[in-house]
Amino acid sequence: MTGQPDSPHVLVVDDDRELRELVVDFLNTHGLRAIGAGNAREMDAALATGDVDLIVLDLMMPGEDGLSVLRRMRGGTRRPPIIMLSAMGADSDRIIGLEVGADDYLAKPCNPRELLARIRAVLRRGQDNPGHPVRRFGEWTLDLVERTIAGPGIEVTALTDTEFRLLGAFLDRPQMVLTRDQLMDLAKGSDTMMFDRAIDVTLSRLRKKLGPRAPIRTVRGEGYMFTLVPQ
Known about the structure:
This protein folds into two domains: 9-125, 3-Layer(aba) Sandwich (Rossmann fold); 134-226, Winged helix-like DNA-binding domain superfamily/Winged helix DNA-binding domain (Arc Repressor Mutant, subunit A). The chain contains eight helices and twelve strands. The protein has helices spanning 17-28, 40-47, 66-73, 91-99, 112-125, 161-172, 180-188, 198-210; strands spanning 9-13, 33-37, 54-58, 82-86, 104-107, 134-137, 140-143, 148-151, 154-158, 177-178, 216-219, 223-226. It has a five-stranded parallel sheet with strand order 2-1-3-4-5, sandwiched between helices. The protein has a four-stranded antiparallel sheet with strand order 6-7-8-9, with no helix packed on it. A three-stranded antiparallel sheet has the order 10-12-11. Strand 1, helix 1 and strand 2 (33-37) form a beta-alpha-beta unit. The N and C termini lie far apart (45 Å).
């Protein structure tokens, strides 16, 4: 099945032309609208059209690499979700990818069907909340559609998927001590793999985005507690 005009639009960014074309063709025959870009400059040109729903981004590229692209884009409030691909499959590389803003991470070579499943899962999670609802806690406001946070002394800041899930887990369980293992289970969702130390990276990044008065307290020897009750 070839993607229709209203199908999700996926941009595959990879300097390996043969691999890029194979992935684009596979996605196009499975209901998506996929196009390719060979480098960051071509990616920027495609994004300028404003019609990209998700980016599949290779980590290792000549010129501006995937990590640099992520760092440059992570402050945007409307940037598409990003699935990072890398031939380096070590946990440390995955952690770095998540830390700088990737919504999901796959090691290369990957099964095209797994990539398709991950793409659909990330897109589906972005459509979970129709309308424009928000959740408020203390002086902070979480936009459930844009997945952005605004609060005291911070500008509107985009959250990655794992940050959004982790914050949601805290909001649903205020003033409860949650262990690291519990947070891993709550933040990973049904479609995303969570691995050792990723929760620590996500938690640290979330605290920074909430600012110096982040309402997340470390309970020594037990876990973490969200200290505010949402409105």
